[in-house]
């Protein structure tokens, strides 16, 4: 199965959902990112589960910056993913840009929350 295509904008970032991929482009530097990110990630999570998608690619190669408050929202999504029953679990594969050093270190850190279900590619 695949996800419904959608495109959303939040301040300086664009969120594109297509097939089995979430692509985030731009910067996320809001003092209140939960206003957008929390419902966005919750809705995406619910769509992944209901569509029986077993792997979501999260392409952040075009995301030049994300602040710590926004990373907290990403962590909340990972916690939702981790709390699923075994038959509903899905993989999260982050695709990172080697030119943005923060991506490799931040995704490595958050992957410790669910190491068997989070992978990372650096291109």
Named CATH architecture = 2-Layer Sandwich
Q: Please estimate the helix content.
A: 25-40%
End-to-end C-alpha gap: 26 Å
Mean pLDDT level? 95
Largest sheet: 6 strands, mixed
Overall CATH class: Alpha Beta
Taking Cα atoms only, what radius of gyration do you get, to the nearest Å?
A: 13 Å
What's the helix-strand series? Answer: EEEHEHEHE
Number of helices: 3
What amount of the residues lies in strands?
Answer: 35-45%
Please tell me what the overall shape is. Answer: globular
Could you characterize the architecture of this molecule?
It is a single chain. The protein is an alpha/beta fold and 123 residues long. The chain has a single domain, classed as 2-Layer Sandwich (Transcription Regulator spoIIAA), CATH 3.30.750. The chain is built from three helices and six strands. The protein has a six-stranded mixed beta sheet, with helices on one face. α1 packs parallel to α2. The chain is globular and about 35 Å long. The chain starts with a strand and ends with a strand. 24% of the residues are buried.
Q: Care to give the gist of this entry?
A:
The chain is α/β, with parallel strands linked by helices and 123 residues long. The chain has 3 helices and 6 strands; from the N terminus they run E-E-E-H-E-H-E-H-E. Helix 1 runs parallel beside helix 2.
